[in-house]
Amino acid sequence: MLAAEETIDGGKEMVQGILEDVVDSAVKVAEEKQVTEPVEALPALETADTLLSGSSNENVQTNGIPDDGQSVSSTDNLETDISGHQAAARFSHVLQKDAFLVFRSLCKLSMKPLGEGPPDPKSHELRSKVVSLQLLLSVLQNAGLVFRTHEMFINAIKQYLCVALSKNGVSSVPDVFELSLAIFLTLLSNFKTHLKMQIEVFFKEIFLNILETSSSSFEHKWMVIQTLTRICADAQCVVDIYVNYDCDLNAANIFERLVNDLSKIAQGRSGHELGMTPLQELSLRKKGLECLVSILKCMVEWSKDLYVNPNHQTGLGSYKPSEQEMAEGKCLDTGGRRSSVSSLDSTVSSGVGSVGTQTAVPDDPEQFEVIKQQKEIIEHGIELFNKKPKRGIQYLQEQGMLGTTTEDLAQFLHQEERLCSTQVGEFLGESSKFNKEVMYAYVDQLDFCGKDFVSALRIFLEGFRLPGEAQKIDRLMEKFAARYIECNQRQTLFASADTAYVLAYSIIMLTTDLHSPQVKNKMTKEQYIKMNRGINDSKDLPEEYLSTIYEEIEGKKIAMKETKEYAITTKCSKPSVANEKQRRLLYNLEMEQMAKTAKALMEAVSHAKAPFTSATHLDHVRPMFKLVWTPLLAAYSVGLQNCDDPEVASLCLEGIRCAIRIACIFGMQLERDAYVQALARFSLLTASSSITEMKQKNIDTIKTLITVAHTDGNYLGNSWHEILKCISQLELAQLIGTGVKTRYLSGSGREREGSIKSYASAGEEFMSLGFGTLVGSGADKRHMASIQESVGETSSQSVVVAVDRIFTGSTRLDGNAIVDFVRWLCAVSMDELASPHHPRMFSLQKIVEISYYNMNRIRLQWSRIWHVIGDHFNKVGCNPNEDVAIFAVDSLRQLSMKFLEKGELANFRFQKDFLRPFEHIMKKNRSPTIRDMVIRCIAQMVNSQAGNIRSGWKNIFAVFHQAASDHDGNIVELAFQTTAHIVTNIFQQHFPAAIDSFQDAVKCLSEFACNVAFPDTSMEAIRLIRYCAKYVSERPQVLREYTSDDMNVAPGDRVWVRGWFPILFELSCIINRCKLDVRTRGLTVMFEIMKSYGHTFEKHWWQDLFRIVFRIFDNMKLPEQQTEKSEWMTTTCNHALYAICDVFTQFYEALHEILLPDILAQLHWCVKQDNEQLARSGTNCLENLVILNGQKFSPEVWGQTCNCMLEIFKTTIPHVLLTWKPVGMEEDSSEKHLDLDLDHQSLSSMDKNASERGQSQYSNPTDESWKGGPYTNQKLFAGLLIKCVVQLELIQTIDNIVFYPATSKKEDAEHMAAAQRDTLDAVIHIDTEDQGMYKYMSSHHLFKLLDCLQESHSFSKAFNSNYEQRTVLWRAGFKGKSKPNLLKQETSSLACCLRILFRMYVDESRREAWEAVQRRLLSVCSEALAYFITVNSESHREAWTNLLLLLLTKTLKISDDKGARFRVLPVPV
What is the Cα–Cα distance from 1003 to 964, expressed in whole angstroms? Predict the structure, then answer.
């Protein structure tokens, strides 16, 4: 300002002269106006109020009309530039009109041109211009309500002040320029709602052009940028500029262009062109950065209501506004005007004469965003058009922004000023049908009515640039001529359109000839007239007409349209100005052109009204930032990279911080990540940087990064990765800075001498910080000291505390943010630990710390955090470096102890999730040290926190389960001791809390039992399983009441599902997996439990139980080595069979209905196996089962039992003995004769009992030629022999069942003794005779057994009679030294049959079956005696001795009336 200068050198005279000019102007206006209505004067006080402040007292209404009704009509006919509707506006008082006139006069005074040459500060013109501008500024700054809202004053500003500013705004006089800028600022503050189009002209044509042009002076740029600094500091103004211009299809992108220009200035890209000093350039850069930072601060301020500072929360993520709350708050803030924004007030008044209501537009962010998108589409389409018109048109039509008719296209070419005029001309001149139609429509939309020919041609060529090709020009001129004649049909000058066509061509040629610098010999007027002779239908046009055309073209050429793009490129491509004088001259020329353009545009929009939106919504910031984040980032990045000035660095870092805040608030991930990465890059802590070059700005960058982490943690998401990477590297830098790890840096003597390999291991962790070369070269102490000094500030107390605050402050992050934080901290930790030689554990330690800090979060959040941390511990605990793994396990132990202190409610699973890493480490890490440590950690937890453990028991037993199969004695012993302690002591006290893990405990004990390396432990484990059964038995109610995962299990069955079943199932697993002594013990315990507690079992439990028990036999159905299978059958299966029968007998009442068929089927299966011992056991068990329980059998049960025996008989008859033949056998008579001889010997060597027979089954054959295949035959023969044994055993079983064991043998002995005493008819009574099952069995069942016996007898008789087949078998190796025979089976089956029949025949209770018995008895006896008579072998006859004795004895004892028919049977001698 020039306030000081005005007080000296004739200031009074200057003011007096100015006021005289003002008064003269006012008088002249008053005389011409001829006021018709008298006006009363107001008191001076009121005059001052109305004129200067515009305020109104109680007697004046808001629209300015006084109570007395006095009104003055404005009929100012002198104001020819004021439109009619404005002339109709009424002033409320004459002083308002006077104020209007004074204001207009000041505007006109400010536009008076200055004299030629350099401006003289003391000249009257310049001083009057300056004072008028100062007065205008004062008026605007102190304007009251009426001045700011009355239509006449608003129009005065548009028509006079804005036009005046368009001229003064490009003045080369600094004072004038500065005042113009100050006035513009005031207009922007108070009147922007009325001046939308004028403000656009100021920005587009003046301010931004001055910033962009390379010839403008430093002073001008400096003043513009000072002004922009004030504009950019106003949030309301910044957002309004974006909303009203960048989101308006018809306006320029002021906001985007402004930021781009400021970004270039901030980067210092134009300094060398301006010839500025380095200091000036730096100052300008700082101002540019300051503006950019201010813009971002405005955005932050505008959207601050969406930001949640984690440090203002109460802690542990306890406060986080819900989505609904945020939405409601947003609606409250955005629904009305934002009172919190420190913006300049743009008051809008309503009422008569006010234009506020006409210009206010509702603020709809979505609608503006749609418009912005449309604008971007149009701009992209124009860009494509300017390269290739057809592509641009096609794109715009596809996007729905351009119609498809030729009229639509023609209108688009007319109206869109941004199109390249050259491309428009090329497009219109194309020869295709479509292009021609568009060109015709384009020309037809021009109106040449009443225009002279040259003016019409000028209008025509304003819209495009003529193409260079003659044919294209020809088509355009032809259509122009036709259109001109069509619009001027009444003209008589041209005979036809041909005349106009030729004349147009000649005018273009004349223009080129007269105004082209390449043409040396210019065309004269006479030559031009001569050239146009005969063109008017063979006649001449009037010479005067042609002369006029020549003179007009000579005076002003026909200027073809230049594209703005072209103009800009030429401006930018100017060579550097040689000296300051030339630059000033060039700048003055540019300023003149700028002023002309601005004035023309300002006058063009002086009467226009454009709606102005006062932004209120927060959502505008998102698209604003998305639009300009790249130039902002470029400015800040270049500033940090190329400039070491602390103020520049501070501005850049502040800008980046604001940008991160905005990107965070609106969830703009790409932008946020880009800015955070930029910060990380300039911290010099990332892998691509060298920390040895660290400067103060890099230290400040680190501090900014830490601050961002602290203040914006809730929004950082994936950007935490970069931040935490830097913090990790910062810790390493601190170690170097404090000299802790310099030994790695300098290396040992050997490393200095050696190759890369020798230092790689030591220096690897510093490679990422750019120390590789130092390590390799072996930096000396001095260099080392300088490095420590450069990074020393990273170890300052403020940095250390700030970093620590990030981790301690993690408790205030919200639920999602803490998960992101933890996830990326774990990722950085993995990178630290990836070094094979020097893994670092900084981040791992921090993970442990934040776990402590955040453990008190709500469980929902904590479980999400631990999901990430637990997975990290899984990996770290399996790290090949034992130190790392030990640290991980120990950290886990500490965290677990703290976590377990909190306890857990029933049915929750947090402990289970928390302790899972122990389980994973135990499973995956094979290091004995780590496994031992895990066991010790778990043991410590059990000993100290047993009362608080609930769901964690599952993990504990899972760990011990892994340890149970280990080969390390210490691990197994410690794990087993702890398990035993849990089972015997802790279960005793806390059994209800451990029910959920009871099954896991039993499974764990089972695994200990199955570890073959420690048999003592195995036995003790089985004992503990037996101990567990006591808990189930003593506390069934606890199991019934426990719910959790068994919600679908009936309460009554929970004892079985949770208690008994796991115990018995795991015992069966032990039986199936372990060696003989352990499985025998397991089998014993399993059946002990059944016998001890079976009385509490439900019926359907027994079904499940026996499915487990029968798995013992299922094991044999799998193909295994013969020796193992044989051992299994002989021992375990044998044992199990007897135990099953014992249990069945003990709990017969509960079991017979549901399990008898299964047990009989299992016995049948055992009998069918190729194992003699198991087969014998099967028949023995069947025998015991029936003898012990037969008296309780129902007829149905007897039926099942008899059917089972029948099936066994049928499936074990060795029919193959009668049909088997060796391969290649030839019959010959000599062999048959030999067979007969040998048979007598074989009968004498028959086996006396079944066991003897079973031991000779593998004798070698005497003749190799008879063998079809030794191994095949042996296997077959062994199986056949077992079937023979089973047949004998079954016969004995039937005898024992019916008559009780040993009864028959005693009876035979008594018969023999009686025969020797010749007292066969004596009565013989055996004590055990009545203990058999005979009396409980029906005749039907006895007949079934008789069928079995008779079939067995028939088979053995047939075999014994087949001497030839017996010889074949004997020669093939069956039975050894003598021929095979089945004499025992033949006689015992018949003896048993006879005993049953004779017993039934004399049983009075079976009288109804006597007839059937008699028939069967006669048949059997007669057949037996008939067969005996045919027997010739002495040994064979001896075998029948007891049988015959039985037959005779029983026959003699039959009563006379029954025995008559028996006594006619032939009796052998």
Answer: 10
Cα 1265 to Cα 1243: distance, rounded to the nearest angstrom: 25
pLDDT by residue (tens digit) across 733-776? Answer: 777 666 555 433 333 333 333 332 333 333 344 444 544 444 44
Instruction: Locate 491 and state its tokens.
Output: 């003209």
Residue-wise pLDDT for 802-830, tens only, equals: 888 889 988 888 889 999 999 999 999 99
At 1456, the pLDDT band (50, 70, 90 cuts) reads: low
Q: Are 294 and 333 in contact (CB under 8 A)?
A: no
1075 CB-contact burial (10 Å; exposed 0-12 / middle 13-18 / buried 19+): exposed
AA identity, residue 1376: G
β-bridge pairing 90-91 and 72-73 = antiparallel
Residues 207-211: contacts with CB under 8 Å, at least 24 apart? 208/254, 208/257, 208/258, 208/261, 209/594, 210/170, 210/594, 211/261, 211/262, 211/265
Q: By the 8 A CB rule, do 1396 and 1342 touch?
A: yes
Report the percentage of the chain scoring pLDDT > 70. 73
Rounded CA gap, 1246 and 1369, in Å? Answer: 15
3-state secondary structure 392-426: HHHHHHHCCCCCCCHHHHHHHHHHCCCCCHHHHHH
Q: How far is CA 941 from the centre of its chain?
A: 35
Query: Which position has the higher pLDDT, 740 or 116?
Result: 116
Q: Work out the number of other CB atoms within 10 angstroms of the CB of residue 1169.
A: 20
The identity of residue 1334, as a single letter, is Y
Q: Return mean pLDDT, the chain.
A: 74
3-state secondary structure of 466: coil
> Which pLDDT band, with edges at 50, 70 and 90, does 64 fall under?
very low
Residue 256 near residue 627, CB atoms below 8 Å: yes
- Collapsing DSSP states into helix, strand and coil, what is residue 290? helix
H or E element: which one contains 1158? helix 1148-1168
Query: Do residues 590 and 568 touch, judged by C-beta distance below 8 A?
Result: no
pLDDT mean over 4-24: 48
From the CB of residue 418, how many other CB atoms can be counted at a distance below 10 Å? 14
Largest CA distance in the chain: 182
The Cα–Cα gap between 160 and 103 comes to 9
- Annotated active-site residue in 469, 973, 1329, 1423: 469
The whole-angstrom distance between residue 1033's C-alpha and the CA centroid of its chain comes to 49
Task: Answer whether 624's CB lies under 8 Å from 227's CB.
Answer: no
Per-residue pLDDT, 1388 = 76
Integer-rounded Cα radius of gyration of the chain: 58
- The rounded distance, in Å, linking the Cα atoms of 474 and 481 is 11
CB 1445 within 8 A of CB 1312: yes
Distance CA 814, CA 318 (A): 7
Which residues partner with 90 through β-bridges?
73
Q: Is 486 a catalytic residue?
A: no
Instruction: Kindly tell me if the per-residue pLDDT of 610 is higher than 50.
Output: yes
Residue-level pLDDT at 823: 93
Task: Tell which residue, 592, 580, 605, 627, has the closest CA to residue 206.
Answer: 592
Alpha-carbon distance values, 996 to 352, 946, 951, 952 (Å)? 83, 15, 7, 10
Q: Tell me, rounded to whole angstroms, the distance of Cα 349 from its chain centroid.
A: 53
Closest among 139, 134, 192 to 168, alpha carbons compared:
134
Contact (Cβ atoms closer than 8 angstroms) between residue 527 and residue 540: no
Q: How confident is the model over 1421-1450, as pLDDT tens digits? A: 877 777 777 777 777 777 777 767 677 677
pLDDT (tens digit per residue) in 292-349: 999 999 999 988 888 887 777 655 554 444 434 444 444 334 333 343 333 333 333 3
Tokens of 1315: 């025969």
What the block records as the tokens of 1345 is 């057994």
What are the phi and psi torsion angles at 539 (to 5°)? Answer: -115, 170
